TrEMBL record:
Organism: Caloramator mitchellensis
GO biological process: DNA damage response
Keywords: Membrane, Transmembrane, Transmembrane helix
Keyword Nucleotide-binding listed: no
Keyword set includes Membrane: yes
Transmembrane segments: 6-26
The protein's name: Oxidative stress defense protein
Length: 244
């Protein structure tokens, strides 16, 4: 009977030692896992719709004649008609920026298709540019300006370029939203693995993409769309968080 008790005590001691060893092994294993994976890197993003608050529009007009003085006279008449037309649309003369005159010399073409040294005509060019906060108004003028053709002006209207002047302030806010998105993603990932998110260790800002709404266009160097009045700005940030 006494011998049986001794055997039972020995068995109990062996089991206790085994449990302690097993616990130590598991603890050491978890410690190693945590040591190897003590951070998590997540990409966060934020989007926002914006409307341009500045527009730049350019139109050009020209005149051509065999006589340089006559070409200049025609261009001056076109210049006056362009100025009168634009001011009639409510624009101030100080808003109109006329470029210097560019001159192109055209030479006669020989029967063999080669260009001769004899001058055939002169073509003179000039542009007018408007920069304004009246985005809708200038957009409408850019569409109607070819009416000048009916007045004998060889006029060409170029597509307006649209900008958002408060982009610097907006970028700061967008980065905050993108960082918050990264933290939310990191917390969700950590939660699914039974861990928790600690402090933010580092954050790296990606390039901003300013595109037409709903565009899927992306570039490593960033995009700055100027063709659309309404735009969408996307901010991306890569964040590294501690896990515990």
């Amino acid at each position: 009977m006494e011998e049986k008790k001794i055997i039972n005590i020995v068995i109990a001691l062996i089991m206790a030692i085994a449990m302690v060893a097993s616990a130590a092994f598991i603890s050491n294993g978890l410690s190693n896992i945590k040591g190897k994976q003590n951070t998590i890197t997540v990409t966060g993003s934020a989007k926002q719709q914006i409307k341009s608050d500045l527009v730049k529009w350019t139109g050009s007009f020209s005149a051509q004649s065999k006589d340089l003085k006559d070409a200049y006279k025609q261009l001056k008449e076109s210049h006056d008609k362009v100025k009168e037309y634009l001011t009639s649309k409510g624009l101030s003369e100080k808003d109109l920026v006329f470029s210097s005159i560019s001159t192109m010399t055209n030479y006669e073409i020989l029967p063999n298709g080669m260009q001769s040294t004899k001058i055939d005509s002169y073509r003179l060019y000039q542009t007018v540019q408007i920069t304004s906060n009246d985005v809708d108004g200038i957009t409408e003028i850019s569409r109607q300006a070819t009416e000048l053709i009916n007045q004998g002006v060889q006029f060409e209207s170029y597509p307006p370029q649209y900008y958002y002047t408060k982009i610097a302030d907006l970028k700061v806010n967008m980065l905050g939203l993108a960082t918050k998105d990264a933290k939310d993603r990191a917390e969700q990932i950590a939660k699914n693995t039974g861990l928790k998110i600690g402090n933010l260790k580092s954050a790296k800002m990606g390039v901003f993409q300013i595109t037409a709404p709903y565009s899927t266009e992306v570039a490593d160097y960033g995009i700055f769309d100027t063709s659309s009045v309404d735009k969408e700005i996307t901010a991306v940030v890569n964040c590294e968080f501690e896990i515990k």
